[in-house]
Amino acid sequence: MSSLESSLEMTANGVAKITLSGKLDASNAGEFQELINQAAAKGIKRLALLLEGLTFMASAGLRTLVFAKQKLGSSVDIYVVAAQEQVVETIKMTGLEYAVIMVDSYDAGVIEAL
User: What is the pLDDT of residues 53-97, one digit of tens each?
Assistant: First the structure.
């Protein structure tokens, strides 16, 4: 079983911030999906995935990212924030970088500006 630490934080203006660290794979992708479900239930306007501490993303994590985009719809932007190079490469191999907004750092002035 791989280790994943995760948390969900909501901003006052409807941005959900999910922080993931460790390894995201089939053994714990359900935890990530549950956080997405919780965020979606709150009617969020944007989703920020804070991935600085995420060292590995398997195909199950990619599937969950696709699920998030489908569940939240085209009106909710998904930001991938501070992902490590190996996670960025995994996302780029699938073409998902065109479905999300990839940024190097969390800029509240940009991400939370609605």
Answer: 999 999 999 999 999 999 999 999 999 999 999 999 999 999 999
Give the residue from 61, 41, 105, 56 showing the smallest Cα distance to 79: 105
Contact 54, 87 (CB under 8 A): yes
Of 100, 24, 102, 99, nearest to 64 (Cα)? 24
Q: Which CATH class is domain 4-111?
A: alpha beta
What residue ranges do the domains of the chain occupy?
4-111
Non-local (6+) Cβ contacts of 75 within 8 A are: none
How far is Cα 18 from Cα 7, in angstroms, rounded to an integer? 6
